[in-house]
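Weekly structure sync, notes
Attendees: PL (lead), two postdocs, one rotation student
Agenda item 3: pending single-chain targets
PL asked that the sequence for the first pending target be pasted directly into the notes so everyone works from the same version. It is reproduced below exactly as submitted, 142 residues in total.
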Amino acid sequence: IPSNAFLGKIKLRIKMIDDANGPDYDPCGTTGYGEVEDYSLTCTDNITSIDPADANSKPLINVYPTPIKDAFTLDISFPDNGIYKLEIGNTLGQIVYSEALEINNSNYNYNKKLNLGDLSKGVYIIHLSGDKTNTSKKIMME
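Predicted structure, written out during the meeting:
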């Protein structure tokens, strides 16, 4: 789920249609040429979802437990070995944690327990950049 996605209840409509005979269809029913179905989803920031097009190009950042009180585990799955820059910043753009990562292992993973308990409560942004990637994730300190 993108970091700017709406969190909460949403509706998802999936449409499968063979439009060879025209685009006429019933929005919530079945036609002779396809089908449309509506689903109700609840999106939270604890869900990690991958767009298949992005599956091999962006790191997946997981943080647990959430919300964060003191210490938390940062678990990142990278698309490839390489050199990356990890930064955690506040909403004012001030960097509160920074680390250079050299990923050189067969499973392309990074796992570390961080203790940032001295930080003020609020929203922080984990930012990860490298040669072929630039991705972020919001976290909440309580």
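Discussion points:
- The beta strands are 8-17, 30-31, 34-43, 60-64, 71-77, 82-90, 95-103, 109-115, 122-130, 134-141.
- The chain has a mean pLDDT of 75.
Action: rotation student to compare against the earlier draft before next sync.
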